[in-house]
Amino acid sequence: MDFEAIKKSSALHPKPAGLTLQYGTAGFRTKAERLDHVMFRMGFLAVLRSRATASTIGVMVTASHNPEEDNGVKLIDPHGEMLHPSWEEYATQLANAEEQELQKVMTEICQKEEVNLHKDALVFIGRDTRPSSKKLSQSVIDGISVLGGQYHDYGLVTTPQLHYVVFCQNTQGQYGKATLEGYYQKLSKAFVELIKQANSPSSGDSQRHLKIDCANGIGALKLMEMQHYFPKEVQIHLYNDGTKEKLNHLCGADYVKVHQTSPGGLDMKPNERCCSLDGDADRIVYYYKDTADHFHLIDGDKIATLICIFLKELLVKVEQALKMAVVQTAYANGSSTRYLEETMKVPVHCVKTGVKHLHHKAQEFDVGVYFEANGHGTVLFSKAAEIKIRHLAKEEKDDERREAAKMLENMMDLINQTVGDAISDMLVIEAILALKGLTVQQWDAIYTDLPNRLLKVQVADRQVIGTTDAERRVVAPPGLQEKIDALVQKYKSSRAFVRPSGTEDIVRIYAEADKQENADALAHEVSLAVYHLAGGVGAPPQPV
Ligand code: NG1
Ligand code: ZN
Q1: Ligand 1 atom index nearest CA of 499
Q2: DSSP per position, 361-405
Q3: Coil/strand/helix, residue 205
């Protein structure tokens, strides 16, 4: 490594003295103006990771659903997955090294990982629509170039699109072409095929309409590009397309989920099917309002359930012993878990928050459906399942079985198996609703969500909260779990847990109960317990 050149270039991307950041569940995320040095150094890390794995690595510049002023960066591993945990640690060390320590930290990483510095390195870069993203992605390029790595800048892409092209590239095109064009073609072909198999596109109406809140983000641009690939029976209407308002401001999947209300900028008529993407288009939630003007949220849990119902029917038809399971986090609504386990008889597994945990667990099954309640999720098919399904779709003599296998094959091609993808998930959902002839209300009525409330509390050090059992119980500070247990006892069908956020400097509180006022009261009481027992700062939390 040419440390003189590195030093010179690094001086142009100085680290604010004393600033420390951590590579969390969503990479680095903070105010954009603090991130220039991080981007530059993540360029280094991507080159080293590319050399260590002899593969192409992705770098995505985005802060997802965070405010427009924020930004962030995450690395994408060879199979389109989140960065390996051991390298998350290196990312943190590199980002926090003072200028004079940079050489030492980089040398250590190279030694530990036996990085061959003479190997080629290739990095794919993508960015969201934030005003700061272009300059920050240039800093990533600067970092890559100083280390002699090659790069391909995809420019404005959704996060899942970058995951997709990285995986395509590293599997020599087996998963698809490593271009946006390739992505649009693969998904739309599978979607068109699926829709063709639907008898009645929608009751009485030959066109299917969907209103989409694009969070004023990248999803709008990419849906516009993709729109002309869609069959004419499917009419999408884009709102919050970024031409007027600020990214994620009073809109987007996170806003809708957290506030359990419709986004600004989208006028909703009764029973119209609507959905919201988040700022980098890797999350999606659906919703509608009924004739009494009540808002109904259809979150990630209900999306997972719909997909499960559909896949299970097909798996029964093809009569293959393929094991399907659902992976959720503690935030999954209790009603969804119950419905999946008791009514559908599908095994459900609970893992820690963070996509990488869900993805990892889902890989254990032939068909692994994973979704976070906030709308991030996908379906993974094992290699063995894929081979069986593709074979049956081609060779099976029995018409019904072959048709079912074909649908499964198209589902496999339509879902982005690298990561949760709002556009791909949306097409999966639209296809299933069309194929099953379901309205949004019928989908919503599969089960009734338990009323719930998500709150946050500021504490001096959120790491004083220790958790166990997939974050459903706390082991520290002393007395907190006992207090939560006692509070939960007070309400019917209730459950509550707390955990330190991986993306914000806060502790999250989740509660659900038989009635909204009980869920609100329980969440508030638990937040007071956290405030008192875990070193709350500022004024005590107020009732909801
Ligand atoms: P944290 O801040 O660790 O709760 C949030 C979401 C996660 C995940 C990450 C990454 C909730 C309660 N938490 O994590 O599910 O999506 O952001 O974006 O929604
Ligand atoms: Zn996102």
Answers
A1: 4
A2: HHTTSSEEEEE-TTS-EEEEE-HHHHHHHHHHHHH--SHHHHHHH
A3: coil
Separation CA 377–CA 359 (nearest Å): 9
CA of 84 to the centre of ligand 2 (A): 19
Say how far apart CA 400 and CA 378 lie, in whole Å. Answer: 26
User: Each residue of 287-302: pLDDT tens digit?
Assistant: 999 999 999 999 999 9
Separation CA 154–CA 123 (nearest Å): 10
Atom of ligand 1 nearest to the CA of 64: 18
Q: Tokens representing 257?
A: 């989920």
Q: What span, in angstroms and rounded, lies between the C-alpha atoms of 64 and 257?
A: 15
What residue's CA is closest to ligand 1, atom 12?
A: 331
**417: helix, strand or coil:** coil
Q: Can you list the pairs that 81-89 forms with residues at least 24 positions away whose Cβ atoms lie under 8 Å?
A: 81/163, 81/356, 81/359, 81/418, 81/419, 82/355, 82/356, 82/359, 82/419, 83/23, 83/27, 83/49, 85/356, 87/45, 87/49, 88/23, 89/23
19 CA from centroid of ligand 1 (Å): 23
The pLDDT of residue 204: 46
Residue 156 pairs with which residues in a beta bridge?
127
Q: How far apart are CA 346 and CA 323, in angstroms?
A: 9
User: How is the chain split among helix, strand and coil, in percent rounded to 5?
Assistant: 45, 20, 40
Active site residue 203: no
Q: How much is the pTM?
A: 0.96
Residue pair 428/486 in contact by the 8 Å Cβ criterion: no
pLDDT of residue 87: 97
% residues pLDDT > 90 (the chain):
94
> Which pLDDT band holds residue 203 (cuts at 50, 70, 90)?
very low
CA-CA distance, 381 to 199, in Å (whole number)? 26
Going by C-alpha positions, the residue among 130, 119, 34, 45 that lies closest to residue 83 is 45
Collect residues with CB below 5 Å from ion ligand 2. Answer: 64, 278, 280, 282
Catalytic residue among 10, 50, 64, 276: 64
pLDDT, one tens digit per residue, over 114-141 is 999 999 999 999 999 999 999 999 999 9
What is the DSSP-derived secondary structure letter of residue 463? G
Give 296's contacts (C-beta < 8 A, 6+ positions apart).
287, 288, 289, 290, 441, 444
Residue 199 pLDDT level (bands cut at 50, 70, 90): low
CB 251 within 8 A of CB 245: yes
pLDDT at 420 over 80: yes
User: 18 Cβ partners below 8 Å, 6+ apart?
Assistant: none
Residue 434, phi then psi, degrees to nearest 5: -65, -45
For strand 452-457 and strand 466-468, is the pairing parallel, antiparallel, or unpaired? unpaired
